[in-house]
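ingest -> fold -> write
write: protein_1
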Amino acid sequence: AARDADWELPRTLAAVAVAVEPARFAGGSEPPVRFPVGTITENLGEVLCALVPDADAPGRRAQLTRAVRQAGARAGLGTTVAWGDAAISFARARAALALAPACDEPLICASDHSGELLLAAGAVLAADFAAAQLAPLAELSAGSRERMTATLSAWLDEPHVVDVLLNPD
């Protein structure tokens, strides 16, 4: 497909999922967002998928944010991956876009909202993650485990701690 589009495969890329009205991007018309040179786009129903090469280049996120804002759109930015993992980045971009109603940002970056994305992914995944993170407690003596659990519980009870965990910026 890249060869047919005369698109040189980048070493890395990130997917952007943009919420669009189907009428705004139909029949091969220009995408509603002006993406950086080298970006390819495809309309997938009510979501425009853009594959942005070298998404971690200096200033690239600001450039994407500006472009989305100027288009009056909302978008999710997936994680930067090798080109063969573009589908993973797009899945994360779509998940980030689903956070748009709760965010004031025009471009919601998956890497900035990993806590919310994890919790939104499902209770089973969140429980598996928590179990993996708490597994080292099982290696402690009963007394040490009780003290560490009490300390962790007190720490997590502080409202600002959860906010910092979910929104590290």
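write: protein_2
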Amino acid sequence: WQNNSFSYFISHKSRGYQVVQDYFGEDYEGILVHDCYSAQKKTPAKLHQLCLPHIFRKLNFLIEFQRSKWAFKIKKCFKKALDKKKEIFEDGFDSSERLQIQQQIEKDLDQLLFLKFEDENEESLRWSLFRHRNKLLTFLHFKNVPADNNGSERAIRGTKIHHKISNGFRNIDSAQRHSIILSVVETAKKHGLN
């Protein structure tokens, strides 16, 4: 887990929800930005935001290989939300106009998600997005909430490279010690400490 101020690394054999309960807790009142793993979806939080680039990959498949007009429109709606977010949170932007833009984008997305398809791939993605509807545009309503989890992806890149090159640690104790040190070092960097 990480944000602009802290990094918290955990090494565990499981990616299950029990790890969340044991290390992160169940009383988080912020906004979680994540992929769509079940443990992440189950984590109690004020709100959730699914990583849009992950969704774009699925949409791109439908656009490129199936020529899906629906996927193109959904992607266009998300891109509009990303573009407008920059504009609506600029200093001096009228709050009533901001709300109007947010509501229009929400409405546009809803109209696309309420369609049904005979094509199995389109319907599967539509249903997935429909089920997670309240996690798709959270970023549009909060200035400091990103639409992706790129910060977390960057944070674990070094560990993933280590895992690929040396095939990981020899035992879980070494991995856990590494996680503790990494948590301290990365948090210190975020606070400008040596």
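write: annotation protein_2
The longest helix spans residues 69-88.
Helices lie at 17-24, 38-42, 52-66, 69-88, 95-113, 120-131, 150-166, 172-190.
pipeline exit 0
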